[in-house]
Amino acid sequence: YDLYDMPFGKERKSLQGEIPEEFSMSAVDMSMIDHIPDMIENGVDSLKIEGRMKSIHYVSTVTNCYKAAVDAYLES
């Protein structure tokens, strides 16, 4: 996959490498974060993050985002 800037009427420009990786989470990694409350309510105790092909910075960012979501839900 790649990330593009697509201004109307102009050629698309790849943004790959211009945006710091830690701020460019994949759609798959972001898709389940909204379901944290459902997972906790249904007894899920742990999450598996696929990170073999990702950088340590990317895995750290995803882990921190999910931890923040879990903590926010548990505090509310």
Automatic annotation (TrEMBL):
It comes from the Bacteria. Pfam families: Peptidase_U32. The keyword Cell membrane does not apply. GO terms for molecular function: peptidase activity. GO terms for biological process: proteolysis. Keywords: Hydrolase, Protease. InterPro entries: Peptidase_U32, RNA/ubiquinone_mod_enzymes. The keyword Cell division does not apply. PANTHER family: PEPTIDASE U32 FAMILY (PTHR30217), TRNA HYDROXYLATION PROTEIN P (PTHR30217:SF6). Belongs to the peptidase U32 family. This is Collagenase-like protease. It comes from Streptococcus pneumoniae. The lineage of its organism: Bacteria, Bacillati, Bacillota, Bacilli, Lactobacillales.
